[in-house]
Amino acid sequence: MSLDLRPCACCGKPFSAKTRKEHQKAFLNKVAQAFASDPDLNPTGLGSQLPSISTDNSIPVDMDGQGDFDEGTSAFADMSLYEEHTPSLEDILPSVEGLRRNPPVTIEDWPDVEEDTVSIASDVQDVDAGDPNRDPDFIEPTGSAPLDPSNEPLMTDEEVLRLLQMEYGDLDDEEWIDMYTRTISTKDRNTLRLLATRLRAHFSRQTYDDLRHGACEELDLPSEFVAWRRLRILSGLETRAYDMCVNSCCCFLGKYEEVTQCPFCKEARFKSDGKPRRLFRYTPLIPQLCGLFQDLEMSKKLGYRVLAEQQFEPEKILDVFDAEHYRSLRATILDPESGYHFFDNPQDIALGVATDGIRNRLENILCVGVIPGPKQCKDLNSFLIPLLDELLELESGVECPAPPTPDCEGLEATHDEGSQRNQALPCMYDQSDLVLRTHQGLLDQLQEIEAARTKTARQKLAQKYGLNARSIFTRLRSINLATCAPYDAMHLFFENLVPNMIRHWTGKFKGLDQGSGNYEILPEVWLEIGRLTSLVARLVPSAFVGTLPDIAQDEHLYKAEAYAFWALYIAPILLQGRLPETYYEHFLLMRDIIALSIQLEITHQEIDRLQKMINEWVDEYEL
């Protein structure tokens, strides 16, 4: 009886099916050991040693960025080569870093944040349980998570491999190796296109399966779980998982690395089986930046900063690169010996850290982590430490191995933990001659808070200066605490000012009545304004605003976008003749301030006029 001898994917020698299965099992055991024992496994050093499987239009990708490749090149595996050289299992380990649990950080200490001080110096509070904007409550799973693709974030590397074995158990040896090779095939391209469509269209896993088993059946696409794993292997990008408080108070790293219960809410860190109750996932920034430089089209877009400088007009502000903060950084000398300034190198990148409130398209955002809700974190620094580690590394310069740009050193990262609030009693300042805060002045105030001997004294100073704690980003040389935090128009205007003015007009502002004024609108008049508002939506294209409900009865449905459209375009019409003339003129001034503030281009003369308009509006508001 003749045996079915076929080349083994591991060593290339002809073996029977039974022997090939034994080699396959040994290979998988090696993979599991590599994931479990070596978190620093080089993500690019071994991939090129894997044999390339013969597929249509396969393109070997050189992850080190050395040399070029032809778009039409195909890769073939000449099994006869293995007769002279049999690679060991160590030579064919997967070129994937794997999930890293609680990797060490270089910054292990930062200023303590006292819980009482958080409520004094921060405007961010927990969202009420009945608020529709509240995140869903965290439901802590009991027992071990089932071996299911939907639970991938909770799975260990060994469990991932077991699930892959369930998916690929009946496939040939070569297809097991295909899972870990760095060779992009036509099937990979089709798979990644469908994944991209799923992200853009937000359709369900069931729809994904319907497509791959229906209209896309001939493409032989893998399951969504396998597709995501394949994407991670091709990109070499893996997340880091850190233990965190079950109530989102802090992340257990640095000075919290050894604690077994939350220092704020006292909840236990681990379950009875020793596993963490909740995880914070951090996606490293540097690999994401390097990945952008590997794409020729994206690398050209990354040169926008240099293009903006070339088109700079002193009298106009079109972008952040025209504004005072960036221009001052460009004039700051970092190295007196060489005369090097911030961003002198055209390949330097200016980064902005946006924790909330700055509206950008998703494709223009590099997300490094999401702090889960629904409760607000107590120590934001603990979640930002992994990012600061990378920012300090970027500040020193990081080589990006892929052309066309060899490095991406330098950055400008903006973040300020301080919040500036008014005191319990209004402070009447001259609006045209305000005392401006400086970077050194803020550092001196923080030092004074930290040097206070008692908790009560620290709280009083925190309230006096409107500061919480020293920002960890002061370690970056590009940070100026007085200017680094941009104005948050979304929250300042459309989540704060406009709703507060509505509360004034309807007599619901912090329990205060109109006193000697007469700015309140009668309830029946406000109901009519709401009714007319709801009729506007059918006449306005959706490109201008999504929904525009009855603002009198359904204001809880309003988001920043709806408030903005209502204040800019609807309210000037509906409030005329219904709001007393003096207050109507005051509202129109507010509307003009908002319109001028959010326009795409502004001159320095317009900025001066805007300052006078704001001063006038504030003076009239406080009368």
From TrEMBL:
UniProt region (Disordered), positions on chain: 126-153
Which superkingdom?
Answer: Eukaryota
Q: What is the protein name for this chain?
A: Transposase family Tnp2 protein
